Amino acid sequence: MLRWRLWRLFWYVALLLSVLLIAMLCYTPSFHCLTQEPLENPRHRPVVVLIWLWPFNKTFELDLCSSLFNIHDCILTADRDFTDKADAVLIHHRDIAWDKSNLPQGPRPPHQKWIWMNFESPSNTVQIPGLDNLFNVSLSYRTDADISVPYGALVQAEDIEDFVPSKKDKLVCWIVSNYRLHHKRMQYYKELQKYVKVHVYGDLFERHVSKQEYKDIISSCKFYLSFENSVHKDYITEKLFNALDLGAVPIVFGPARKNYERFVPGDSFIHVDDFPSIRALAKHLFLLHHREALYLRYFRWRRHFHVMTTFFPGENACRACEYLQQNRQYQVLKDLYQWFWDTSEGLDLPLSFY
Asked: Which carries the bigger pLDDT value, residue 282 or residue 28?
């Protein structure tokens, strides 16, 4: 009996000590244990991204991640005093010197990642020597980049409603500034001009158009030539998304139709490859011009989606910060050239939109 009483007394003392210990470590009324919350959690501290080279020497506001893209705990800076402290250095390919003399020259901190950013097509990207094994993260329009930021996207609409395009007074329009006779898109344009009038605007045709004129022109046309300057995997630029957003049906020249269908519904655009000849394409345009019901089918997607275009380069920097918050592992881009300049399609099946 005495042994049992001593054993029970031992458990009472142990229980009392446990309660006292909890009281020391926790506080009321939430019973939030201080030992569970270190004063500084390195995995949740703000991520610092240093903009080393302003893309095309174009500056942007550095405090936009939270307000515009709902990406928090990001510090963007262009102050090179943060070179040793930054979690990542964002470097725009087009602005790298051929001898790399304008890149950071000192020893790289062990925790720091260099981000290679490029939104030009491979045909318009100079292969600067010595970039393999230099960068850790790729940031591009490509869907297989570490950080993929396409030129635009369709976003689910909150309400479903029919879309009625604005009144049109032109059939086909094209705004072009990068005019090169050897571009294949020029051959398509010249051939199409034989069968249908194309209203052409831009630096080398009439004059430079302002942002507002750009919107007004596209909105006034039934069809818009969303012709890319080169054909590469995923290289689908604002030329497509602006036309969709402004109520014109895009006529696209670029990668294969199935590549476009990874970004937008297949019945939202016309691909030049859909026709055996440019003459057949022109005939189809006249058919749609006279058959309003057929033309309006190209806007059925507007009942479900609206267009979002990428805010370059500010959004790209914010997406880089978001990526770093979720990916702490270290890697090196050993075959940057081989990956980006690969001309193979390597496409998956189209996405489902409806």
From this structure: 282
Tell me: the pLDDT tens digits for 259-281?
999 999 999 999 999 999 999 99
Residue 96 near residue 126, CB atoms below 8 Å: no
Same domain? For 283 and 295 the reply is: yes
Domain extent, residue 83, equals: 47-149+313-340
Same domain, 137 and 191: no
SS3 of 89, please?
Answer: strand
pLDDT in tens, 172-208: 999 998 777 777 899 999 999 999 999 999 866 667 8
pTM: 0.83
Active site residues: 120
- The phi and psi torsions of 353 (rounded to 5 degrees) equal -105, -30
Contact 9, 3 (CB under 8 A): no
Residue in the block written with tokens 């570490």: 146
**In the chain, where does DSSP find H-type helix?**
2-25, 65-69, 184-192, 211-219, 238-245, 257-260, 278-290, 292-296, 314-326, 336-340
